[in-house]
Design a protein that fits this description.
Length: about 270
């Protein structure tokens, strides 16, 4: 069996404003790197050592004008400030550290939109933290995290949308929720309300990692254009850059929104 310190992660991120939007409200966090210029398509590839507890995230800003991109940038920069604390925390304390970051980001964005008299801005969050050969997922909103074990694709997140809420309460069937216009109406996002004192990221059970595993973190600009089966088809083939393949597929399928994808391959 490979020793813990021998695991590495190949991380590829691609971000594009899409075929319709005039600006890119997405941002990302590649263990300290963020989008250097959101006005241009971005493509970065890096190798990380698992022993350094790397962190990866995507933030999909919302609100129109320039506020969405400001919100996602605030989130990315605040995670930069919290990176050392989150990376050095124990697995038992990780959720607490992540939610300290969430609370701080929520307050910063809330105060920003309040100063601009705009109350419909904010950002999603989808994040993977790696510790002790395990991947810990956290999320808020409708940016997604997928896990591919070499055979099957698993969605690790449940969109925080009005459509899913109506499905859970029996108003919609699953098919109705999938195709309803409510699927794009968020019930949770970062920056929503300073008074949400118990506002936290949703967490999932950590996943033990092994060489050959892949993880995908993406904004809804990808998943609105490409269903899970199309994502499976890309991740199950051999490629030098899965993130690029996924973004290109979203653009071919219409690219009506900003699209950002991070693909993490365990080596």
């Amino acid at each position: 069996m490979l020793k813990r310190y021998q695991y590495k992660i190949k991380a590829d991120v691609v971000s594009n404003q899409g075929n319709v939007r005039t600006n890119n409200e997405d941002n990302f966090f590649l263990n300290g790197q963020t989008n250097p210029d959101i006005t241009l398509p971005c493509e970065i590839s890096e190798i990380y050592n698992i022993k350094n507890n790397p962190i990866f995230a995507i933030f999909d800003g919302m609100g129109g004008e320039s506020y969405g991109e400001i919100s996602s940038e605030i989130a990315a920069q605040t995670l930069t400030e919290y990176k050392k604390k989150i990376s050095s925390s124990s697995p038992d304390n990780l959720k607490k550290c992540v939610n300290e970051f969430v609370h701080q980001t929520n307050e910063k964005i809330f105060n920003m939109v309040k100063s601009k008299n705009c109350y419909n801005s904010g950002t999603t969050l989808a994040m993977l933290c790696f510790k002790n050969n395990m991947a810990f997922p956290f999320y808020i909103g409708d940016s997604r995290i997928y896990f591919f074990d070499g055979n099957d694709l698993y969605r690790l997140t449940i969109d925080h949308t009005l459509a899913n809420h109506k499905f859970k309460t029996g108003v919609y069937t699953l098919e109705e929720a999938e195709f309803s216009s409510d699927r794009n109406k968020l019930t949770q996002f970062v920056g929503s309300d300073k008074l949400h004192l118990n506002f936290e990221a949703t967490s999932q059970k950590p996943i033990n990692i092994y060489p050959g595993y892949k993880f995908l973190i993406c904004s809804d600009g990808l998943t609105d254009m490409c269903n899970d089966f199309k994502i499976y088809q890309i991740l199950s083939k051999s490629s030098e850059n899965y993130a690029k393949d996924l973004v290109e597929m979203a653009l071919i399928e219409g690219g009506v929104d900003n699209v950002t994808a991070i693909v993490l391959e365990i080596l």
